[in-house]
Amino acid sequence: MLSEQSAVTVRATLPAVGAALDEITERFYAGMFAARPELLRDLFNRGNQAAGTQRQALAGSVAAFATHLLDHPDERPDAMLSRIAHKHASLGVTPDQYAIVHEHLFAAIAEVLGDAVTPEVAAAWDEVYWLMANALIAVEKRLYEERGGAAWRPWEVVERVTETADVATFRVRPADGAPVRDFRPGQYVSVRVPLADGARQIRQYSLSGAPGPDLRQFSVKRVHEDGAPDGEVSGHLHARVRVGDVLELSEAYGDLVLDADDDTPLLLASAGIGVTPMVAMLGHLAGSGHRAPVTVVHGDRSPADHALRTDHEAYAAKLPDATVRFWYERDAPAGAGTGYVDLADVPVAPGTRAYLCGPLPFMRTVREQLIAKGVAPADVHYEVFGPDLWLAK
Predict the structure, then answer these.
(1) CB contact at 8 A, 273 and 301
(2) Which carries the bigger pLDDT value, residue 164 or residue 52?
(3) Which is the most buried residue in 86, 119, 324, 377, by most CB within 10 A?
(4) In terms of DSSP bridges, do strands 188-194 and 246-249 run parallel, antiparallel, or are they unpaired?
(5) DSSP state of 253
(6) Averaged pLDDT for residues 219-235
(7) Beta strands in the chain (DSSP E)
(8) Among residues 29, 98, 188, 253, which one is catalytic?
(9) Average pLDDT, stretch 214-219?
(10) Does the model's pTM come out above 0.90?
């Protein structure tokens, strides 16, 4: 994929570029938003920008892609590209925006690395960038074609359910009355809302169920962590959106989807609001009569904080061979574990395929425990809410 001459240059300069990526991405975003403020206002997540997590995710993905090109020259990192492309498609990213990113990213590289960016170095990293960008553009084009385009669609809120003190479920119906496309359990939609300062910010929320043929359901946790800014969109949805209001939603995207036949043992592990895609998967399995063993694992602060707990338990109870294990940091009832999720005494059937969603430390721990129990690394799939920092470890 990468030309021989560029591969030599990238290999020689990767340590220096990698060490400077955090500063490069910081200057990149600052320069791009100064020139194109509408991108920060209406496309990029302002909370992630303020926290620096988007910068870390970009640095991690660029370094991982370049490393993959060098270590596996005849392969493309399709799993990483697919995850990014699904996020981009849900946001409505267009091919011309890759040229904007290129302009400001390479300006930042030249600014940070100075004279080290010779014409040969610039050409080699330009090749890396466009290999990644063109691959993403191709995947995103296919996704748009599959979902009927990148257009936003108005959906009316027909029901709002309080799940916990900080989680609300919104059930919505297309305001235009047109048919609803199917989604795969585990996928998410983007929700775009107008804020008081005129911005139209976008966030992704997992579809937590399919309550009817013309309805969609997503659950939102209000973000208000100590020492961090409150979530702009989650706060807006909780404080202002009621039955009868209209929201803008994208089509469903996401690559963490069930891909198993009825004879495949499954493990669905979640923590906190990561429960949402797992409940959608569990509901699908219950409805389709999945026969093989299903292990349901969840960790939360307390039973009162466990969103969709009733659905979690009810769907599992409908399966012929399901094991349910919950852990709570406090107020754990009889039969539940106290503290964090620990799979040490949880049986895992041979050939299990696992799906994980929750905070990164939780998913890394569960993944390590599953691999130690014999689960193949390729059979452990995960979803990260927000920027994917797995590669920025």
Answers:
(1) no
(2) 164
(3) 86
(4) antiparallel
(5) B
(6) 83
(7) 153-162, 167-174, 188-194, 200-209, 216-221, 246-249, 266-271, 294-300, 322-328, 337-338, 353-357, 380-383
(8) 98
(9) 95
(10) yes
